[in-house]
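stage 2 :: seqdesign
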């Protein structure tokens, strides 16, 4: 395979097949040397890489003969990392409305830009968005790159990724942030591939290291059991996505102003056709926006008992959340799930009922302002982060609270 990310040195490969065994992607095969016009060798076969190779390096580490190496990929813009300046936040809009996660990204972006002593820019795609573009400067952006075109009114993976990649090539930002929303998750990885750089998805913290001024991108790893801090030392921009409500948003300052720079889109031949746009169903709880959440876990014992939580939620004007155990048991639909693989929430009050407090659940709710936990096990880990812990049976306590609220 020409220009494969893996180099195999014909003079060193013994055809031992160890690399085939460790490759998680079935990207290596053993072939007779004669087929490739390779130098005579006492070893009949040679390892050959195919297009499934992701340059993960597992084979390089395993090879006892130093017969493999990862090819240094040539980046757009050459190797001069110092040519990259500025922090960008992608300003996602839906139906012309800037999404809340954007203000959170701008708040963090401002902090990072100040630490790097550079500019913060927002990047906005849409149609008839000039007014909204100017407003983004109130939230901390020094500049807004606006691509205002009817073709970008609705999200399009092809047009968004090619336009963003071209802007990156033109302006060379050192950091690019985006929301880990369905849109961000769909097109930002494609942008990273086009820019030949790395991407850390679903970060929970972003900082600048004092010495090398690199972006420290922290996210849960190994099923949430450790927090890994990831850097992107050799490529630019450093790209990261962050879920809604993970970062805090600052307040807008109407006296701030900045420059709005209009750019043309890079429109591509669409490979997908939108047949119909369906808006979220009315009965879908917007957990991410709720001020109060009453959440249930396996302790509820069955789907019928979520009714008890719905009654409490009704009295409080709350949304109903759930642990993954309750969702996996089919007691409640998946869009109620809170946690690492569910929604990240940050309500004023989170009431956890019959939830043990596994690290993956905490990853989605631990930044709630006040946490009340009700659990019959006094050693349940949820009590470690709860502001108020009630040791007892949810079937006694929850109806009691609901009654008190009703009788007020
Ligand atoms: C990669 C990965 C991602 C994951 N993502 C998520 C995620 O997004 N969200 C998530 O929630 N989990 C997630 N999990 C699962 C997580 O590890 C836990 O298994 C799950 O959170 C447990 O749910 P639970 O607390 O409801 O159940 P359990 O751990 O079984 O806890 C039930 C609790 O109910 C209490 N209880 C029982 N009866 C009563 C009663 N009558 N009154 C009071 N208390 C009672 C028990 O004492 C116990 O503490 C993930 C796991 C992995 C590996």
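stage 2 :: out
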């Amino acid at each position: 395979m020409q220009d494969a990310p893996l180099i195999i040195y014909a003079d060193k490969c013994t055809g031992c097949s160890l690399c085939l065994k460790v490759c998680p992607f079935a990207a290596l095969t053993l072939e007779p040397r004669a087929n490739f016009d390779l130098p005579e060798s006492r070893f009949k076969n040679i390892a050959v890489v195919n297009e499934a190779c992701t340059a993960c390096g597992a084979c390089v580490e395993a090879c006892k003969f130093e017969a493999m190496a990862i090819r240094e990929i040539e980046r757009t813009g050459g190797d001069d990392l110092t040519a990259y300046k500025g922090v960008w936040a992608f300003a996602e809009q839906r139906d012309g409305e800037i999404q809340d996660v954007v203000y959170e990204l701008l708040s963090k972006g401002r902090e990072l830009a100040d630490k790097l002593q550079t500019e913060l820019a927002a990047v906005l795609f849409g149609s008839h968005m000039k007014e909204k573009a100017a407003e983004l400067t109130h939230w901390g952006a020094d500049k807004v790159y606006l691509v205002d075109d009817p073709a970008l009114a609705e999200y399009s993976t092809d047009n968004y990724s090619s336009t963003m990649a071209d802007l990156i090539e033109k302006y060379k930002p050192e950091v690019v942030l985006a929301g880990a929303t369905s849109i961000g998750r769909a097109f930002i990885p494609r942008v990273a591939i086009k820019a030949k750089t790395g991407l850390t998805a679903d970060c929970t913290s972003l900082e600048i290291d004092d010495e090398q001024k690199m972006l420290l991108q922290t996210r849960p790893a190994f099923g949430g059991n450790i927090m890994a801090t990831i850097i992107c030392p050799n490529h630019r921009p450093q790209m990261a996505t962050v879920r809604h409500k993970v970062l805090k948003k600052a307040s807008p300052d109407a006296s701030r102003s900045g420059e709005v720079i209009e750019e043309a889109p890079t429109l591509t031949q669409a490979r997908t056709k939108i047949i119909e746009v369906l808006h979220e169903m009315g009965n879908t709880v917007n957990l991410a926006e709720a001020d109060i959440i009453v959440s249930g876990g396996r302790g509820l014992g069955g789907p019928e008992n979520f009714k008890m939580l719905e009654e409490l939620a009704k009295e409080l004007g709350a949304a109903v959340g759930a642990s993954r155990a309750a969702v996996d048991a089919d007691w409640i639909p998946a869009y109620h799930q809170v946690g690492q693989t569910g929604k990240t929430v940050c309500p004023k009050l989170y009431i956890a009922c019959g939830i043990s407090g596994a690290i993956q659940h905490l990853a989605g709710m631990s930044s709630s302002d006040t946490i009340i936990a009700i659990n019959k096990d006094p050693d349940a880990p949820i009590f470690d982060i709860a502001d108020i812990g009630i040791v007892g049976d949810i079937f006694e306590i929850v109806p009691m609270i609901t009654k008190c609220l009703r009788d007020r």
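stage 3 :: structure notes
- The pocket of flavin-adenine dinucleotide is lined by residues 223-224, 297-299, 323-326, 337-342, 354-356, 358, 360-361, 364, 374-377, 380, 393-395 (CB under 6 Å).
- The chain is about 25% helix and 25% strand.
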